[in-house]
Write a structure and sequence with these properties.
This protein is 22% helix and 27% strand. It has 19 helices and 39 strands. The strands form nine sheets. Strands 17, 18, 19, 20, 21, 22, 23 and 24 form an eight-stranded mixed beta sheet that branches. Strand 17 and strand 18 form a beta hairpin. Helix 1 packs across helix 2, helix 8 runs parallel beside helix 14 and helix 9 runs parallel beside helix 10. The chain starts with a strand and ends in a 5-residue tail after the last strand. InterPro entries: Peptidase_S8/S53_dom (IPR000209), Peptidase_S8/S53_dom_sf (IPR036852), Peptidase_S8_Ser-AS (IPR023828), Peptidase_S8_subtilisin-rel (IPR015500), Peptidases_S8_3 (IPR034197), S8pro/Inhibitor_I9 (IPR010259), S8pro/Inhibitor_I9_sf (IPR037045), SBT (IPR045051). One of its GO terms (molecular function) is serine-type endopeptidase activity. Keywords: Glycoprotein, Hydrolase, Protease, Serine protease, Signal. This is Subtilisin-like protease SBT3.12.
Length: 758
C-alpha cells in the first residue's frame, strides 16, 4: 500500500515509482485499535547537512501524528539522513495517510519483502592478469575502490577475502565492521573486507509469526552463501587450486581482485524463501552513502509480472538508488531478475540503474554415458560422484511410474523448465540417475548425489531408440568433467528476464549482459552445497557482480566519470557476438538470435569499455527531463531532486532522454529524436554516422559528421526515423554508430510501428 498526495496526475509515478495508490485525502486521527505496521516515509532532498538535525525533524514530524513524544520516539525503526531524508516507523494506516497529506512528504510506502535473484568468467571476457598491459593493470586491479554489496552477509574465513599484497585502506573510507554473533571485527575484517554491517529492525512487524532461521547469525556473518558468492565474483582476491569437486578447476579471482569489499547484510534465512524488507535495504543504501562506497552491486529485486506489471517494491529501491547514483555519484548495478524468457519480465527498470542480463560462457560440465552397446554419448551434468552403472529405462510419466524407475537410470522428456524439478525430485527419491531430454541444451545447476544429465531432444530420441531396440539396456555414467573453449556457443540464459520495459517502454532494459550461468564462486562453508566453501550456481544475481567488478576497474582509471558515463561506455562498446565472433543466441522456444530485449546493448566488452571515444552522459537535469516526460508532477520532482522544477508545456518527449539506446515503441509516421555525446577520447576527433536501419524503417542523422577539438567537447545531433510499414509491427531492431575509424560508439535502435494504437 502506498500514499501520495495531489491529483491523479501525481499518481503517474510510473518508471521509477512503480505504483502509488492515491485518494487518501481525509485527515485521520490515530485509532488505538488499528494495527501498526512498518511504513517508509520519503522526504526527498535533505534540508540540513547535520544528520542529527535531520533526525530531530523526523521526530517532530512523527510527534504530529502520535499522542505523546515517547510514542513517536518508540515508533522509529530507522532514520535515513545521509543520502536523502526519510525514516521507517511503525504506523497505523491512519497515521500513514495523515503523513502522506503533508506538503513536505514525497511518498509513504508500506514495508515490503525483497528476494535474492539468485573462475572462467574474466578470462572469457578478456581480463587476464597474465597480459603485460590492459585494464587490470592500468586500474591497479581496483585497489583504491570500495565496492559495496547489499546482500546476505559474508563468510569472513573465505580465502576470497585474504588481504595479501593490499596496501592501506583507502583514505576516503568512513565505514566500519560491526560486531555480532560469531563475528569479531578485529579478527574477521582486514584490508580486503573493510566494512560489514547488518540490519534486522522491523522484522517482527514485517513478518509476524515468521522467525529468522536458527541457522542464521545475528551479525554480518551470513549462513546463506549468496552474499559471499556475489562479492567473490566481483572482487575476490587470487585463490589458487579452486574447484567444485574437480569441476571448473583453476585460480579463482574477482573482476577487480584488489578492490575493497563492504557488506551490508539485509537478507536473512527464513522459510519458505530467504528474504528481507525494504526498510532494511533503504537503510543499507543510506549507510553505504555515508561510509564512502564507490560502487554498489545489488542482486535484489522483485520480478515484473507482465500481467500485472506495476510493482511498488521497485519504488523504494529506486528512490534510494537515485540518490546514490545522481546525488552521490555511486554507480548502482542491478540484476534483470530470473523470470525469463517471457517478454516484459525484466526488473530494476530505472534509467539510472545499470541492469544486467545473464549469458552462458565458453565452459560446460559434462559426463560420458556409455551404453551397453559400447557407444558413448556426452551429456551436460555437474555430477561429481563416482562412476555409476545401472539399467536404463524410459519413463513417460515420472510422477506416477515409480516402480519402473526404482533403482535404475531413467530417461524422460520434458517441455518446460518447471517440468524438470518434478523429474529431479522423482530421481533423487527412487532412481539411480536421470537423463532429461528437452528442447534446449541449456544446463541447469541442480546439485545432487545422483547423476542428473541434460540432453536435447535429438540425443534423447537416440537414447530412446537404444532402449527400445535392446533387450537389456544399460548405461554407465562417468564423473563430471570440464569443457572449455570455442566450440561452446554463448547464449542468453532462459531464466534471464527479458524486455521490453513494461513501465517506460522508451527506456531500454536490460542494459547489458554478462556471464551468469554455472559460475564458480565462494560461498558459506556452512551451506549444504559448499564443496568446501565453493559452489556453482546460475542467475542474474551472478552476472550483476561480473559487471560491477568491471565498473570498479573503469572508475579506477576514470574517477571523474559520472555513473551515466560509465554505463554509456559499457553499453556502446559491447559485443554483439561472443568473444570468438560467433553469434549469441537467446535461449527459449523457439531459440533465436539474441536482440536488445534479450541482452540490452550486448555482451560486456571489458577492454573496449575503457576507451569508448564518446559517451552519452546524464546529469540531474536529464533525469528531471525523464521525470517530466513520464508525467511526474512538479512538486514531487522538486521534493525528490531538491531542485525547483516546473515542467514545460507541452511536456518534453521521453524519446529525447539522453540514454545510450534509441527505443521507439509507437512510431506512426515519422519522429525526430535528439541526443548529445561528450568526447572522452583524443581531443581532436572526427566521427561519422553509420546506420544499420531496422527493416522497413528509414533513419537519417543530422549532422552526419561530428568534429571535436579543444573548444568543442560536447555535441548534439538529431535522428529522424520514419516507417514504410502500413500496418502494426512488432519491434524491429537495428543499430546506430558514431565511428572515428578506430572507435565504434554503437547503440541499439529498436522501432515498433503503430499505425493503429490500441
Amino acid at each position: 500500500m502506498g500514499f501520495v498526495k495531489g491529483s491523479s496526475k501525481a499518481c503517474l509515478f510510473i518508471g521509477f515509482l512503480f505504483i502509488l495508490n492515491c485518494g487518501f485525502c481525509v485527515f485521520a486521527q490515530e485509532n488505538g485499535n488499528e494495527e501498526r505496521k512498518v511504513y517508509i516515509v520519503y522526504l526527498g532532498e535533505r534540508q540540513h547537512d547535520d544528520p542529527e538535525v535531520v533526525a530531530e525533524s523526523h521526530q517532530r514530524m512523527l510527534e504530529s501524528v502520535f499522542e505523546s513524544v515517547e510514542d513517536a520516539r518508540e515508533s522509529i525503526i530507522y532514520n535515513y539522513h545521509h543520502g536523502f531524508s526519510g525514516f521507517a516507523a511503525t504506523l497505523t494506516d491512519s497515521q500513514a495517510k495523515q503523513l502522506s497529506d503533508r506538503p513536505d512528504v514525497l511518498t509513504v510506502q508500506s514495508n515490503r519483502e525483497v528476494h535474492l535473484q539468485s573462475t572462467r568468467v574474466n578470462d572469457y571476457l578478456g581480463l587476464s592478469p597474465s597480459l603485460p598491459k590492459g585494464l587490470l593493470h592500468e586500474s591497479n586491479m581496483g585497489s583504491d575502490i570500495v565496492i559495496g554489496f547489499i546482500d546476505s552477509g559474508v563468510w569472513p574465513e573465505s580465502q576470497a577475502y585474504n588481504d595479501e599484497g593490499l596496501g592501506p585502506i583507502p583514505k576516503h573510507w568512513k565505514g566500519e565492521c560491526v560486531a555480532g554473533q560469531d563475528f569479531d571485527p578485529a579478527k574477521h575484517c582486514n584490508k580486503k573486507l573493510i566494512g560489514a554491517k547488518y540490519f534486522t529492525d522491523g522484522w517482527k512487524e514485517r513478518f509476524p509469526g515468521s522467525e529468522i532461521s536458527e541457522n542464521e547469525y545475528m551479525s554480518p556473518r551470513g549462513w546463506i552463501g549468496h552474499g559471499t558468492s556475489v562479492s567473490s565474483i566481483a572482487a575476490s582476491s587470487f585463490v589458487p587450486n579452486v574447484s567444485y569437486g574437480g569441476l571448473a578447476p583453476g585460480v579463482m579471482r574477482g573482476g577487480a581482485p584488489k578492490a575493497r569489499i563492504a557488506m551490508y547484510k539485509v537478507v536473512w534465512a527464513k522459510a519458505p524463501l530467504d528474504s528481507t524488507s525494504v526498510a532494511n535495504v533503504v537503510k543499507a543504501f543510506d549507510e553505504a552513502m555515508k561510509d564512502g562506497v564507490d560502487v554498489l552491486s545489488i542482486s535484489l529485486g522483485t520480478p515484473i509480472n507482465p500481467i500485472r506489471p506495476f510493482n511498488s517494491i521497485g519504488e523504494d529501491l529506486e528512490i534510494s538508488s537515485f540518490y546514490a547514483v545522481v546525488k552521490k555519484g555511486i554507480p548502482v548495478i542491478a540484476g534483470a531478475c530470473n523470470t525469463g524468457p517471457d517478454a516484459y519480465t525484466v526488473g530494476n527498470l530505472a534509467p539510472w540503474l545499470l541492469t544486467v542480463a545473464a549469458t552462458s560462457l565458453d565452459r560446460a560440465f559434462y559426463v560420458d554415458m556409455t551404453l551397453g552397446n559400447n557407444i558413448t554419448i556426452m551429456g551436460q551434468s555437474q555430477y561429481i560422484g563416482k562412476e555409476k552403472s545401472a539399467d536404463l529405462v524410459y519413463v513417460e510419466d515420472y510422477k506416477n511410474d515409480v516402480s519402473t524407475m526404482r533403482g535404475k537410470v531413467f530417461l524422460t522428456f520434458v517441455k518446460e523448465d518447471w517440468d524438470m524439478s518434478g523429474a529431479v525430485i522423482s530421481a533423487t527419491s527412487y532412481a539411480k540417475g536421470l537423463i532429461l531430454a528437452r528442447s534446449s541444451d541449456f544446463q541447469n545447476d541442480y546439485e545432487s548425489d545422483l547423476p542428473i544429465v541434460y540432453v536435447d531432444y535429438e540425443v534423447g530420441y537416440k537414447l530412446l531408440h537404444y532402449i527400445r531396440s535392446s533387450s537389456s539396456p544399460t548405461v554407465t555414467i562417468s564423473k563430471g568433467k570440464t569443457l572449455v573453449g570455442r566450440p561452446l556457443s554463448t547464449q542468453v540464459c532462459g531464466f534471464s528476464s527479458r524486455g521490453p520495459n513494461s513501465v517506460s517502454p522508451a527506456i531500454l532494459k536490460p542494459d547489458i549482459a554478462a556471464p551468469g550461468k554455472l559460475i564458480l564462486s565462494a560461498i558459506s562453508q556452512n551451506f549444504p552445497t559448499a564443496f568446501p566453501g565453493f559452489g556453482i550456481s546460475s542467475g542474474t544475481s551472478l552476472s550483476t557482480p561480473v559487471v560491477a567488478g568491471l565498473v570498479v576497474l573503469l572508475k579506477a582509471i576514470h574517477p571523474d566519470w559520472s555513473p551515466a558515463a560509465l554505463k554509456s561506455a559499457i553499453m556502446t562498446t559491447a559485443w554483439k557476438t561472443d568473444p570468438y565472433g560467433e553469434p549469441i543466441f537467446s535461449e527459449g522456444s523457439p531459440r533465436k538470435l539474441a536482440g536488445p530485449f534479450d541482452f540490452g546493448a550486448g555482451l560486456v566488452n571489458a577492454e573496449r569499455a575503457k576507451d569508448p571515444g564518446l559517451v552519452y552522459d546524464m546529469n540531474l537535469d536529464d533525469y528531471i527531463h525523464y521525470f517530466c516526460a513520464s508525467g511526474y508532477n512538479d512538486t514531487s520532482i522538486t521534493i525528490l531532486t531538491g531542485k525547483p522544477t516546473q515542467c514545460s508545456s507541452p511536456l518534453p518527449s521521453i524519446l529525447d532522454v539522453n540514454y545510450p539506446a534509441i527505443t521507439i515503441p509507437d512510431l506512426e509516421e515519422e519522429v525526430t529524436v535528439t541526443r548529445t555525446v561528450s568526447n572522452v577520447g583524443p581531443v581532436d576527433s572526427v566521427y561519422k554516422a553509420v546506420v544499420e536501419a531496422p527493416k522497413g524503417v528509414k533513419v537519417a542523422v543530422e549532422p552526419e559528421t561530428l568534429v571535436f577539438d579543444s573548444n568543442t567537447k560536447k555535441l548534439g545531433f538529431k535522428v529522424r526515423v520514419s516507417s514504410s510499414h502500413k500496418s502494426n509491427t512488432g519491434f524491429i531492431f537495428g543499430s546506430f554508430t558514431w565511428s572515428d575509424g578506430t572507435r565504434n560508439v554503437t547503440i541499439p535502435l529498436s522501432v515498433r510501428t503503430r499505425v493503429l494504437k490500441p
